[in-house]
Amino acid sequence: MSNRPAAARVRDTAIDQAVGAKPLPSNADTQRACGLEVISLTKRFGDFTALDQVSLKVRAGSFHALLGENGAGKSTLVKCVVGYQQPEEGSILIADREQRLRSPREASMLGVGMVYQHFTLVPHMTVAENLIMSRIDTPQFINWRSARADLDAFMRRMPFRIPLNTPASSLAAGEKQKVEILRQLYLERRFLILDEPTSVLTPDEADEVLGMLREKAQRGDVTVLMITHKLREVKAFTDAVSVLRAGRYVGGGATADLRTEDLAELMVGEREPPASQARNHRAASETVLEISGLRARDDEGVPAVRDVSLTVKAGEIVGVVGVSGNGQKELVEVLAGQRHAEKTGIQVHGQPYKARRSEMIRHGVAILPEEPLRNACVPGMTVADNMAFRVFDRRPYSFLGWLRHGQRWKRAQELISAFGVRTPGASTPIGKLSGGNVQRAVLARELTGDVRLLIAANPVFGLDFKAVWEIHERLRQARDSGTAVLLISEDLDEVLQLSDRILVMYEGRIVHETTRDRAEVRVIGKHMAGDHG
Q1: Strand blocks (E) in 20-120
Q2: Which domains does the chain have, with CATH numbers?
Q3: Pairing relation of β-strands 351-352 and 346-348?
Q4: Which of the residues 227, 280, 462, 470 could staple to 480 if both were Cys, CB 3.0 to 4.6 A apart?
């Protein structure tokens, strides 16, 4: 039974009725796990269909895994369930009652909670304050002694301890994730959604947390729906699996009845590698980039790049593929000089490389980062100024410390024409351009001049078909002209189409390597999902 005041329960019921969420029966069963069913759920964003008639069922008291490649529709589905987004078609049933969820508040009043990939704790509040202040029925004036006594009693029932008086900002990443999960249990959530919950946990911590949730599910205290890409954890802890691919439900069932290779095949499909485009054959020659034993940590101090070693030769594209969050972002940031490496072992043309601007110019290193408007441009500056970032202080664009605006303007006009950048003019702020044209402008800047190494990260994410084709063609042309290209992408088809060699990155390590000619989609998919056997 809930220990909430009767007045608070009456108030919550009134809110439920006012906003359209149907309140559940007010008896002891409301504190038990509840099930979920979605029926023919469809969600569109303009012309793009993110969910296409998805139907699946999560049994009350079960630990259920939701799998799929990046972009399969997993996040969109759970956002509909927690009320952040509303579907155009279909129904959502919670505890066998159809619900029309228009906000996360409505979902939380029905006992649905979510632990997100990114922490939501208030940094300067203590753990205790974060937990107590998150309750729906928190009064205007809090009896902290009583609230703390209730919290202490709750913590004694939990298998792990977190320092309640410590500010959230002082916790390690793994402790923050535990607090996020504890908060949902403290709030008496009966249906708990976890989005990649172990990405910041050590293997031992992951087993501890998931083991605790499995026990609570088996007792009927909570139902768990977990988005993950780690098949080891799926096989070890879950009861059932549902798989989405390209916005559609493609299969699932009892975990015990599904082999790891079955799950990997459901995620990537029984598809042949896409045909690679014809190339002007130029055999890969000397090694341009060599990485040996590289290590780096993420923003939370957790190891993200773990002893990565790879090479890229002139005249080849090496594709690194993996599910988001496996260290690719941190790898690119180290190579771009945006992140400190714990252990550096990077050489370009046989010389140590620290990603300084002088080294990039000397070795002909160009970077095409993910989200270029955020990571490679100043949105309020003009297209011409953004295109000049690599050369503004060099002749003929600068002389004796003075910038020569006419030369910079002339260069911008030439690049706009050569790369088909659609813009009202070179004086337009680059932030006013479409995503595809921002990408074309950055490519024009990075691929002009002496480019011997190009590092491209998710280069066509979110772009339309025409922009994708154009940018892919630019990458092929760079490769065919003798440039060494390191392509980091979460899109397996993109890597298969463009790469001469393919590496799979999982939990910060390179776990598989193959040539394009010998690539097998199912094998790559298994390694992306953590099955390296």
Answers
A1: 36-45, 48-58, 63-67, 89-94, 97-99, 112-115
A2: 61-83+100-261 (3.40.50.300), 283-363+487-533 (3.40.50.300), 373-432 (no CATH)
A3: antiparallel
A4: 280
- The DSSP bridge pattern shows strands 97-99 and 89-94 to be antiparallel
- In this prediction, residue 25 has a pLDDT band, given cuts at 50, 70 and 90, of very low
Q: What is the DSSP string of 413-459?
A: HHHHHHTT---S-TTSBGGGS-HHHHHHHHHHHHHSSS-SEEEEEST
Measured distance CA(356)–CA(333) in Å, rounded = 12
Reported as a single tens digit per residue, the pLDDT across 295-322 is 999 887 888 999 999 999 999 999 999 8
pLDDT at 259: 86
Q: Is the separation of the CB atoms in 80 and 242 below 8 Å? A: no
Percent of residues, the chain, with pLDDT higher than 90 = 44
Token duo for residue 257 = 């009845």
| Strand arrangement, sheet containing 287-297 | 303-313, 287-297, 346-348, 351-352
Antiparallel, parallel or unpaired: β 501-506 and 509-515: antiparallel
Q: Provide the β-strand partners of residue 43.
A: 51
Q: By the 8 A CB rule, do 510 and 310 touch?
A: yes
State which H helix or E strand residue 484 sits in. strand 484-489
Residues counted in the chain: 533
Q: Tokens for 527, please give them.
A: 């390694």
Return mean pLDDT, the chain. 84
The pLDDT assigned to 475 comes to: 92
Helices (H) and strands (E) in the chain, counts: 18, 22
Measured over the CA atoms of residue 439, residue 514, residue 308 and residue 70, the dihedral's sign is positive
Nearest to 344 by CA among 388, 317, 307, 299: 307
- Reported as a single tens digit per residue, the pLDDT across 204-242 is 778 888 999 999 999 999 999 999 877 888 999 999 999
Which of 257-261, 350-354, 488-492 is the most confident on average?
350-354
pLDDT given at position 216: 92
Q: How far apart are CA 313 and CA 189, in angstroms?
A: 53
Please give the Cα distance from 467 to 266 (Å, whole number). Answer: 29
How far is it, in rounded angstroms, from Cα 310 to Cα 316?
13
What single string gives the DSSP state of each residue in 242-295?
EEEETTEEEEEEEGGG--HHHHHHHHH-S-PPPPPPP-------SEEEEEEEEE
pTM above 0.70, yes or no: no
Spacing of C-alpha 500 from chain mean position: 26
- Token duo for residue 17: 């009725």
Tens digits of residue pLDDT in 95-123: 999 998 988 889 988 999 999 877 889 99
